[in-house]
Structure formats: C-alpha cells, structure tokens
Structure prediction request, 133 residues.
Amino acid sequence: MKELLWDKTLSIDVPEIDQDHRRLLELFNRLGQAAEDAEPQAYIEAIMDELISCTGWHFQHEERLMEKYGYHGLEEHRAEHQDLMARGRALQQQLRQAGAPPSVQEIAVLEHWLTGHIYGADMAMGAQLAEAM
Ligand SMILES: [Fe+2]
Prediction:
C-alpha cells in the first residue's frame, strides 16, 4: 500500500498547521497499512473515524487562524473544508457499510482528498498567514 512521506513540498510554512498535516498523513498511512495487513474491520474503522475527527478538528484550527489574521479567502476555504468533510464522511460510511477494508482505489481517493487540499487551498492560505503571524 502506498505510504505518504512528509517532505518540504507539503509544508505550508506555518509550523502548527504542518504539524497537524503530518498527523493526518500518519493516520492515512496507518489506515493503508492496516488494510494491507488485513487487520480486524473494527480496528480499520476506528482509524478511519480518527482520521475524520482529526480532520474536523484540524479544519477548525485553520479557520481560527484565518479569522484571526483576516485571511481574504476565508469563506471560500471554509466552503472547501465543508465539502471535504462531507466527502470524508461519505467514505467513512461506505467503509462501514461494506464491512471490508478500503480498496486500493478507495485509498487513492483518500490520498487525493488529503493532499489535494494541502497543495491547493492550504498553500495559498499559508503564504499569507506565514507573513501575518
Ligand atoms: Fe485547509
């Protein structure tokens, strides 16, 4: 199963946010590894639940900083978070209903779900926050 490794290209130059992102990557890797090792379904679902709740918590963290520093793209960014949470919860539900480990394709969807937003909206936000903070 593909493992996501942290590197400088993922850094948005805001250390406290980078720290959250590293944690999310770690959970993603743990999920992939658990699927590969055919761990019990309840364990796999627990990791997925942790990934989704940490993501929700992390989005609040970003939104709090964007509000504090008057980030101009806040509303658009918040809307993207809401969309990501809806898609993440749908995947979580899908996994639960299937009662089977995530497929390679589902892991790939989740990978894009995780990194696409960091490389896009979070980079733009980081550029401004890093200056303001
Ligand atoms: Fe974000």
Observations:
- The helical segments are 15-36, 41-68, 74-98, 104-132.
